[in-house]
Amino acid sequence: MRNGTGEILRRLRANGPLSRAELARRAAISSAGVTKIIAQLNADGLIREREGLGHAIGRPPVAVSLVAGARRVLAIHLGAGRLQVAFSDLMLGLGPARSFEFDFADPIREIISATADLAAEVLESAGPDRGMVLGVGVGVPGSVDASGRVNTHSILAGWRDVAFADAFEAALGLPVVLEHNATAIAMAEARYGAGRDARSILHLFLGKGIGAGFAQTGAGERCAPVEIGHVVVDPGGPACRCGGRGCLERFFSEQPLRDMVGDQGIPRSALVGAAMRTEAWLGVYEHLLQALSTAVTLLGPERVVLGGDLNTAPDAFLEALRRDLPPRVMPQQRQRLTVERTSLPEPAGVHGAACVALERFFYTTGPAAALRVQRLAAST
Ligand SMILES: [Zn+2]
How far apart are the CA of 238 and the centre of ligand 1, in A? Predict the structure, then answer.
């Protein structure tokens, strides 16, 4: 359902500062409606109004902008072997991240409890501003249920049906929402990063595995994980942990690239560059191109964004994709398709988790609904 407050907040995020008249026009809300919403946002300390927008003669229009520091969300990224926690303001400005290393083979109960302890410490550090924290976003390494509460399956971690939201809500007393890491990072990239001026992006991410997320903003917003690592590029090829054979991940992810380079100690950020200098590169690159062009053909993103350890790949890698990808997709896609590096700073996963929390607890309905959820959660 369309929510006027959410409409106004999203426009201020994307295009602010804006005059009230411009807000009314862009959000298609009556000026009386905008006045009412602005009064409430002002009372909540979420916006500020300043004179001096534009070049109008006479009384200058008043510019409305978001107060980024007026509320916060807590972001938790459960990545491959590393857990990170940080606060984010309303414009995805992150505070310092705290982290610890873990192993996917560790008992899940221990991982949850260590995560909750670290998150509680970070919450404590907010002091009296603790009440300004709207909720918690958690990025997990696999698919989540439709309500964003359970990590239903993680091939990378070997987890099934882990109820992270229940566990963290009980431990932290705040509403919690989960999202697949790949989707969360794609959403952050689309709203705040290299996808800001594109209607849809495919965010391709090299870490331990190779993953992707699709995000479409504006009209018809949607986002989804794209299991590009498990597109079969060599039928009958080597067995994959997903149960299939010949998946892209068996050729293009951390371990196979390391094996190709013959150096187990090289930093992951230098891996693609080193792999490009080997004889086997062309075959592996062809596999990547096959899976990527399939994803682009099916999903039709305007932009492919290279994240994680693809962001540090040599320019020659970016240039090769810009040259080789367009001829492999449909003509109408070819004309507008661009390939860019990420512009989200590290840690990308924490930015992703923060973006998910901001969408759920602020930009969809404004902060009031999130606080209501919080009180309900606290009273049960
Ligand atoms: Zn697979």
Answer: 10
The CATH number given to whatever domain includes residue 237 is 3.30.420.40
Q: What is the pTM of this model?
A: 0.91
Instruction: List the chain residues with pLDDT less than 70.
Output: 1, 52-60, 368-380
Residue 246 Cα, ligand 1 centroid: separation in angstroms?
A: 7
pLDDT of residue 286: 98
Cα 242 to middle of ligand 1, angstroms? 4
Q: Dump strand ranges (E) for 89-125.
A: 98-101
- Alpha carbon of 309 to ligand 1 centroid (Å): 20
Closest CA relative to residue 302, chosen from 208, 379, 190: 190
Instruction: Provide the pLDDT for residue 250.
Output: 98
Which candidate, 295, 284, 214, 232, places its Cα nearest to that of 253? 284
Verify that 269 and 219 share a domain, yes or no. yes
Within a domain: 189: no
Asked whether residue 205 falls in the same domain as residue 335, the answer is: yes
Domain count, the chain: 3
228 CA distance to ligand 1 centroid (A)? 9
Residue 247 CA to ligand 1 center (angstroms) comes to: 5
pLDDT, position 372: 44
Q: Could you report the per-residue pLDDT of 280-339, keeping only the tens digit for each?
A: 999 999 999 999 999 999 999 999 999 999 999 999 999 999 999 999 999 999 999 999
Write out 305-370 in H/E/C secondary structure: EEEECCCCCCHHHHHHHHHHCHHHCCHHHHCCCEEEECCCCCCHHHHHHHHHHHHHHHHCCCHHHH
Q: What is the domain extent for residue 9?
A: 4-66
Distance 274 CA to ligand 1 centre (A): 24
Q: For residue 226, how far is its CA from the centre of ligand 1 (angstroms)?
A: 13
Ligand 1 centroid, distance to 80 Cα (angstroms): 17
Spacing, Cα 224 to ligand 1 middle (Å): 18
pLDDT of residue 370: 46
Amino acid at 346: E
pLDDT value for 62: 87
